[in-house]
Inverse folding.
């Protein structure tokens, strides 16, 4: 590894050495090779593209579907003195235009893009004029229809190859089966197969899957016994609050987290947990991406995840410090039934998908022959209620409409208000002199933020209201007045997903839906859920079962999961019962009834099992209905 890489790592990230496989991956990128890197959750994937991008001239384009993670990484890079920007759904065209200009003419080193942004011809055209040094594709499994989290917008990544054919791809993921590994390289048109895989083995994790009628009570006992901090994953937002309240009422410091919280609340809750002011965070699967907390002692699932890939990622947030930690899944028969029912609901008919499209166009009042390129805030819950639709089939219909190129739908994420002055310093000063009512607000904005003449900046209306001693509504009214006078641009906050129509509206009866793809996805999803249920019901060792799923065949029992502990206990119990039988029968022959009655260990079923085994191995002889220890062997 070159001195440059180590010095960059030390200068910006403060580390003296790389984690396993990072060096090899970085060198592969520096050698201009297309590279697929599989590193477990917490394995340091971002360093693998950030370090080489800092060495090479030009800009690194990072594609990720996780907007919250994207914003966190941009903030972190800026905090350590590296210029980075992000373009995601929710930004207006003027903002996107300014960001892209800065990427071409400025000193930006990282441009983060959500994959649906690659549908935009504006974005594609501007990338042509950028000096790109690397394409980094995070969550790369999303490009594969064989993967557990297929994202139709990821199919647009091939356009990046067309724009700059000689720029290498670095595809990154934490989980992928052998078929997904092959599919990622195929879809990204790797010039040559090139994969770096870190073993999926986490030998400090004691995986457990326990059938439990009283899941809340068992969860409480697990948390009390294990100590330390942890995560509890639940199915929906309502349950995050209910379970957090239950834990607090039982004397455990806990809080809840889900994607519906405003950004500041999410940040505050996450920080309190990271700093161990909150011991347990109860969350939906929106929590955890990009969070590197080393001392998590347990991750508890109160519902069954839909795939082993998802489970491995979430469970893998435990024990990153290498010390013993426990991923625990608590389930009931009802949970298994729900998983199978959701599978059935996730693949609606073509007619239903066409109907959802029709309702969407009516909902947003899109005329026939129009609508291409329009973007709306989309409250999917109110849409479902308005048209009396079922939730799971509707969400699935939206995904299939996206795959067929009719629309894109971004994840929900809080985007704060943005503001920019549209006049220069001199013009603004004249406004302050001429209109006294705007003077205090303008001064407050100028004192609080730099660059407000050049770019959109995020603002907090409540802070200005507090500083100026007026109401939030008055601040918004003053800002809107400045906009009306063409002195400023203002974009209010949003926390809704963004729905974009990619084509003009057509008659829904003529809407093309790829039914062959739907059936294939159903087959893939069925296999994944069967693997999840087999993990729960038929594993001999939890860790070994996970490793086999990800293609690591020659593995031993872990000796620390619930099944290994039960088996080891059973082996020890069998051994002790055998010693007790030997002692009794060497002293005096016994009838089977008397022998079973004299044994002090185990229940009758286990006692009989040991006796039968000893007879099969000729350790015990039966003479006239009496059992005798065979001293001749």
């Amino acid at each position: 590894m070159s001195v440059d890489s180590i010095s960059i790592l030390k200068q910006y990230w403060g580390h003296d050495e790389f984690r396993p496989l990072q060096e090899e991956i970085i060198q592969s990128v520096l050698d201009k090779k297309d590279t697929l890197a599989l590193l477990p959750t917490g394995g340091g994937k971002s360093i693998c593209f950030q370090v080489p991008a800092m060495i090479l001239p030009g800009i690194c384009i990072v594609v990720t579907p996780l907007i919250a993670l994207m914003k966190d990484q941009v903030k972190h890079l800026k905090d350590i003195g590296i210029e980075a920007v992000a373009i995601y759904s929710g930004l207006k065209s003027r903002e996107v235009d300014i960001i892209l200009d800065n990427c071409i003419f400025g000193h930006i080193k990282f441009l983060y893009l959500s994959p649906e942004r690659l549908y935009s011809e504006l974005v594609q055209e501007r990338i042509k004029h950028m000096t790109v040094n690397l394409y980094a594709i995070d969550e790369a499994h999303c490009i594969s229809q064989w993967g557990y989290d297929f994202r139709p917008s990821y199919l647009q990544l091939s356009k990046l190859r067309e724009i700059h054919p000689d720029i290498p791809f670095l595809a990154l993921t934490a989980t992928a089966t052998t078929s997904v590994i092959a599919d990622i390289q195929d879809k990204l048109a790797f010039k040559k197969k090139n994969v770096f895989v870190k073993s999926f083995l986490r030998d400090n994790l004691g995986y457990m899957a326990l059938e439990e009628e009283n899941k809340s009570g068992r969860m409480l006992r697990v948390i009390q016994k294990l100590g330390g901090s942890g995560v509890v994953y639940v199915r929906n937002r309502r349950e995050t609050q209910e379970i957090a309240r239950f834990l607090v009422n039982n004397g455990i410091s806990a809080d809840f987290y889900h994607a519906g919280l405003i950004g500041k609340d999410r940040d505050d809750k996450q920080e309190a947990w990271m700093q161990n002011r909150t011991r347990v965070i109860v969350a939906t699967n929106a929590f955890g991406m990009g969070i590197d907390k080393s001392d998590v002692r347990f991750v508890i699932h109160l519902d069954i995840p839909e795939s082993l890939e998802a489970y491995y990622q979430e469970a893998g947030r435990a024990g990153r410090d290498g010390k013993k930690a426990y991923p625990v899944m608590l389930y009931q028969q009802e949970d298994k039934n729900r998983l199978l029912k959701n599978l059935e609901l996730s693949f609606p008919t073509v007619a239903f998908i066409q109907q959802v499209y029709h309702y969407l166009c009516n909902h947003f009042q899109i005329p026939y022959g129009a609508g291409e390129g329009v973007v709306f805030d989309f409250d999917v819950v109110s849409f479902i209620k308005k048209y009396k639709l079922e939730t799971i089939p509707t969400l699935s219909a939206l995904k299939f409409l996206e795959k067929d190129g009719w629309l894109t739908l971004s994840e929900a994420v809080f985007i704060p208000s943005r503001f920019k002055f549209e006049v220069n310093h001199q013009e603004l000063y004249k406004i302050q002199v001429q209109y006294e009512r705007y003077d205090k607000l303008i001064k407050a904005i100028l004192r609080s933020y730099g660059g407000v003449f050049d770019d959109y900046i995020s603002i907090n209306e409540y802070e200005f209201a507090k500083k100026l001693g007026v109401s939030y509504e008055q601040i918004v009214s003053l800002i809107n007045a400045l906009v009306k006078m063409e002195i400023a641009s203002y974009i209010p906050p949003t926390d809704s997903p963004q729905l974009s129509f990619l084509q003009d509206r057509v008659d829904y009866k003529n809407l093309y839906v790829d039914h062959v793809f739907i059936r294939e996805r159903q087959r893939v999803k069925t296999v994944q859920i069967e693997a999840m249920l087999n993990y729960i019901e038929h594993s001999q060792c939890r860790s070994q079962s996970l490793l086999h799923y990800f293609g690591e065949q020659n593995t031993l029992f872990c000796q620390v999961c619930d099944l290994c502990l039960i088996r080891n206990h059973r082996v020890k119990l069998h051994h002790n019962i055998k010693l007790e039988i030997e002692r009794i029968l060497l002293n005096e022959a016994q009838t089977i009834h008397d022998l079973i009655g004299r044994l002090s260990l185990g229940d009758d079923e286990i006692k009989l099992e040991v006796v039968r085994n000893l007879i099969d191995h000729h350790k015990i002889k039966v003479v006239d209905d009496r059992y005798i220890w065979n001293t001749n062997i």
